[in-house]
Each structure stands twice: as C-alpha cells, then as structure tokens.
Design brief:
There is one protein chain. The protein is globular and about 45 Å long. α1 packs across α3. It is built from three helices and eight strands, in the order βααβββββββα. It is α+β, with helices and mostly antiparallel strands and 143 residues long. A five-stranded antiparallel sheet has the order 1-8-7-6-5, with helices on one face. The protein has a three-stranded antiparallel sheet with strand order 2-3-4.
C-alpha cells in the first residue's frame, strides 16, 4: 500500500471551493492535472477522467464513485486492468476553517500487486496533486 496525501489552505469559503471542484466544464481552464472529468456526481456512477501527471502523456481512467457528500467529500475507486493489481482510492475533502477559509485535502491510497513497481508514476502523481491544489487555490481566491 502507498498513500499520497496533500492539503492546502484556501482563502475562500468552502462552498466556493466545492463549486469549482464540481464544475467539471471549467477543469480545462484551470486544472493542470485533471484536464477533463465527465459523469454524474452520484454514488455508484462511473466517471471518466483524463489525468496528466508531469512527465507523462496522460491517461483516461474510469473510476466508480464510492462516496459523494455534496459540499464536503467525493471519493472514488480507479482500477488499472484487473482489480487488486493496481487500484487507487482517491478522495477530495473540504473542511471549513472559518467562513472565509477552507482546508482542501486530496489523497489517494494505492493497493495491489503492482504498486511496488509504480514508484515513478506515484511520484509524478504526487506532483500533479500539488499542482492541482495550487491551481485550485488560485482559482478560488480570485473569485
């Protein structure tokens, strides 16, 4: 098992941050890591996400939403090939620090037989999370 955990404080209300995160049509304009997302925000539904980690050509993943709590949390499971080879459980969480400040947490837990072989991919993904977090902060704080 490997985990990538990132967080960032954003000087904007949690509802504004969440609005940006769930407005998938805006992603190509501000998000350097997750270039495109499509799908309905509902537990059990599959999303289609094009991710572009640094030093990579990018790839499309089709994770299944495991948990959706509007305004607070989105969690999904992506599987590379066959289940239990290289699975990633990804989550976004917003926590209100005060009415004008939000803590955004983005993390992913990777499990499966091939995870020990993916250290380069995981390093690039961690950098992609940091890039996305910073871009989200900039987008939210300019509104």
């Amino acid at each position: 098992m490997k985990e990538i955990y990132t967080e960032i404080e954003i000087n904007a209300p949690a509802r504004a941050v969440w609005s940006i995160l769930t407005d998938f049509d805006r992603f190509p304009r501000w998000n350097p890591f997750m270039k495109r997302i499509s799908g309905t925000l509902q537990e059990g539904v599959m999303l289609e996400i094009f991710i572009n980690p640094p030093n990579s050509n990018g790839m499309t993943i089709k994770p299944k939403i495991l948990e959706y709590e509007p305004g607070k949390k989105l969690r999904w499971l992506g599987v590379l090939g066959v289940r239990k080879l290289f699975d990633g459980e990804h989550s976004w969480t917003t926590e209100e620090i005060d009415e004008d400040k939000t803590l955004f947490i983005q993390k992913e837990v990777f499990t499966g037989l091939l995870v020990p072989l993916g250290s380069g991919l995981l390093r690039n993904t961690a950098t992609g999370f940091e890039m996305m977090n910073q871009a989200l902060k900039e987008e939210a704080e300019k509104e």
